[in-house]
């Protein structure tokens, strides 16, 4: 008997709720990475140093005992929209390392997949808040061949991120690329 597919519903819900809560707490109408950084530093009583360097992955965050703070490294060879997504993804890793603040944890045999899913979903939800995304999506005609590209530009994210977000918010019919939203 094969393995059952992973159910991401509770992970998705938690990521959405946390991203929305932070977004609302900031009192902003548009996602702001600088405010997210300040929020994380303030809420976790730490410093986060960001650097861009040539990495063999999109990004990484780790605690540096020498500075008693966190270092977030982004792959300098990737487009800025990808770096923005990775920034939020890595901040979500920091949040999960402090998971007790939010009252839930990720456990089980698929822990790594679930953690990565949470971080991806948090990044998407923070960069493209659901209400703002849905309003923008509905404001553009489905006959607009550049609809996805226009939304990607508006939110400064990739076209793929917009497609996934639209599918996650049930704005596209069916699943895309085998996603298990």
Q: Can you tell me the overall shape?
A: globular
Domain count, please report it.
Answer: 2
Helical content, roughly?
40-55%
Query: What's the gyration radius in Å?
Result: 17 Å
The helix tally amounts to 7
Kindly describe this structure.
This protein has 181 residues and is mainly α. The chain folds into two domains: 9-127, Arc Repressor Mutant, subunit A (Orthogonal Bundle), CATH 1.10.10; 129-174. The chain contains seven helices and three strands; from the N terminus they run H-H-E-E-E-H-H-H-H-H. It has helices at residues 9-25, 33-43, 80-97, 111-127, 130-139, 147-155, 159-168, and strands at 48-53, 59-64, 69-75. A hairpin with a 4-residue loop joins strand 2 and strand 3 (69-75). The longest helix is centred in the middle third of the chain and has 18 residues, at 80-97.
Topology readout:
Elements: H1 9-25, H2 33-43, E1 48-53, E2 59-64, E3 69-75, H3 80-97, H4 111-127, H5 130-139, H6 147-155, H7 159-168
Parallel strand pairs: 1-3
Antiparallel strand pairs: 2-3
Short structural description:
Helices cover 51% and strands 10% of the residues. By secondary structure, the protein is mainly alpha-helical.
Give structural attributes.
Arc Repressor Mutant, subunit A, disordered C terminus, 3-stranded mixed sheet, 181 residues, mainly alpha
């Amino acid at each position: 008997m094969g393995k059952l597919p992973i159910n991401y519903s509770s992970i998705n819900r938690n990521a959405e709720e946390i991203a929305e809560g932070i977004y609302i707490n900031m009192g902003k109408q548009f996602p702001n990475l600088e405010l997210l950084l300040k929020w994380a530093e303030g809420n976790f009583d730490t410093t986060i140093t960001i650097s861009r360097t040539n990495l063999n992955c999109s990004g990484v965050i780790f605690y540096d005992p020498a500075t008693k703070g966190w270092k977030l490294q982004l792959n300098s060879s990737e487009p800025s929209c990808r770096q923005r997504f990775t920034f939020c993804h890595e901040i979500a890793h920091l949040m999960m390392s402090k998971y007790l603040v939010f009252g839930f944890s990720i456990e089980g045999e698929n822990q790594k997949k679930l953690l990565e899913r949470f971080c991806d979903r948090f990044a998407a939800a923070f960069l493209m808040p659901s209400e703002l995304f849905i309003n923008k999506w509905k404001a553009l005609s489905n006959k607009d061949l550049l609809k996805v590209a226009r939304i990607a530009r508006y939110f400064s994210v990739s076209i793929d991120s917009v497609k996934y977000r639209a599918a996650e918010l049930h704005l596209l019919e069916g699943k895309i690329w085998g996603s298990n939203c």
